[in-house]
Amino acid sequence: MSWHVDSWKDKPHAQDVSYDDPNALASVVEKLKTLPPLVTSWEVERLKEHIAEAQVGKRFLLQGGDCAERLADCQPGIIANKLKILLQMSLVLIHASKKPVVRVGRLAGQYAKPRSSPTESKDGVVLPSYFGDIVNRPEFTAEGRRFDPRAMLDAYGHAAMTLNFVRSLAIGGFADMHHPEYWDLGFMARADLRDELRVEYKQTTEKLAEALRFMEAIGERAVEELTRVTFYTSHEGLNLHYESAQTRTVPRRAGNYLLTTHMPWIGERTRALDGAHVEFFRGVENVVGVKLGPKVDPEDAVRLLTTLNPTNEPGKLVAITRMGAANVERSLPPLVEAVRRAERRVLWVCDPMHGNGMTTASGLKTRNFDDILTEIERTFAVHARLGTIAGGVHLEMTGQDVTECIGGGLSEADLDKNYLSVCDPRLNYRQALEMALRLGSWMSDARKARL
């Protein structure tokens, strides 16, 4: 079927927003088309090579970051903390699995947010829902919730500034990573942490620090100069006006590249086979992720994956399952079996966040640390049993000391202390690092069992 950069406009558009000024929208889109790309085609192709290697078990994908980025969070300390926790988690997983880790941040573009309802009501007042800073603002006012196409230009500018700082940090390296005293291991003092886990975590960080110092010594250079840390970016490709405006052909390469991010993904609410999002993303050369929840029909999933990657190109697709801990053992095996029977190449990644949400009595959205761990553990167990590869995790987390998820040392009473998310709850720094240590322990045990 023919495809062009605007063919999505002829399809049903889930999560669409109705801009009240079509001329202003057209003007913004035309301006975005003239601006430099945020990422490059060779970076996209390099990520595709890494994903292809992860599909056969040679790498592992760590994808994480904010539920919804705020433009106001485009600050050096906040960005550096996001990269720091991604890097520290990846080092733990490298040490445990003895394989390279692909680091992908929900970063520099995660400004759009799907909503279960197009409107929100408070005290009898009904306004449009908050769809992320790329569309409108979270303040519950008529002006704040107005769909403003100029917000796409603001999002582009802040994404460019974020990427510029990320690249500067990556080139300069994080020199403190091989000093364990800079690692916040305060969670190890928790009374509910088993002694054997406390000892295991301490030994892991000490061994990792020793290994990094050894690499530095034999190379006579800083370890970051030996490894040259690379970060990739990702976001949900929700606002197709923004994405299509930055999609283009490039010299000496075939096809169309979406250049707002390295790895866009299609959400659970927008993966309809006849919808606008599938139509758009089937035509770009990027690695594309697809969220798959517990209600997905396995054969529909196969058709979806085939539509997005008809040539079965290696490294092209990431299947991000988000079942919920209680649904993994029922819903994941038939999906994995159907995809395997169809011989579709995908990287299986576990998103243990979105299927495990809950609301407190006071109305705060939260997630339970233990439920998140349980979904990862059950997902890895299913893949091990079926002989397929669990090749990554997709987490909503932050380098800040927020109190948004219970467990991991936080109770429901702690949530009001520093709840900052405008959408979904995130793991804080200590919870995310402990998550990596738990996952690393499982990966290490599995690796030793195969020897």
Task: Describe the protein in words.
The protein is α/β, with parallel strands linked by helices. Helix content is 40%, strand content 14%. It has twelve helices and 14 strands. It has helices at 22-34, 41-55, 76-97, 151-172, 195-219, 223-227, 240-245, 276-281, 298-308, 328-341, 369-386, 429-450, and strands spanning 60-65, 101-106, 119-122, 125-128, 231-236, 247-248, 257-258, 263-266, 288-292, 317-321, 347-350, 357-359, 365-367, 390-396. An eight-stranded parallel barrel has the order 1-2-5-8-9-10-11-14, surrounded by five helices. Strands 3-4 form a two-stranded antiparallel ribbon. Strand 12 (357-359) and strand 13 form a beta hairpin. Helix 3 (76-97) packs parallel to helix 12, helix 9 (298-308) crosses helix 10 (328-341) and helix 10 (328-341) runs parallel beside helix 11. The protein is globular.
Summarize this, please?
The strands form four sheets. An eight-stranded parallel beta barrel has the order 1-2-5-8-9-10-11-14, surrounded by five helices. The chain has a two-stranded antiparallel ribbon with strand order 3-4. It is of the alpha/beta class and 451 residues long.
Percent of residues in helices comes to: 25-40%
Number of distinct beta strands: 14
Overall 3D form: globular
**Largest sheet data:** 8 strands, parallel, barrel
- The radius of gyration computed from the alpha-carbon positions, rounded to a whole number of angstroms, is 21 Å
Query: Average pLDDT, to the nearest integer?
Result: 91
- The order of strands across the largest sheet is 1-2-5-8-9-10-11-14
Low-confidence stretches: none
Task: Output the structural class.
Answer: alpha/beta
